What does this fold into?
Amino acid sequence: MRRQRSSDTEAEWAVRRALFSLGLRYRKHYPVPGRPRRSIDIAFPGRRIAVFIDGCFWHGCALHKNVPKSNEAWWYAKLEQNKQRDAETSRLLADQGWLVLRFWEHDGVADVVEVIRTALAR
It folds into this structure.
């Protein structure tokens, strides 16, 4: 578990590189207003757009989640807490007028970037 990155994952890097190459500027690890220990992976504060690239393991992707066999009950509870925290964070941001975009780490970079570009164009 120690090797599971919590930030600056390959998926985040790939999306950020693509956005930067298109001339789009963003803030990374932007603090969630009202929740200083939480952060937005990629934020466009002026447009109030929050982008999260969720890892399949830590965020409980239905397609790819792989719960460790040892201490299984603890892991199920932990992953459920993570999902609840994600939902709470999304709700908190939406209540403050942010558009929240959530993607899985396995989503295609081009698809993710296109959704972000569309959101920025609105």
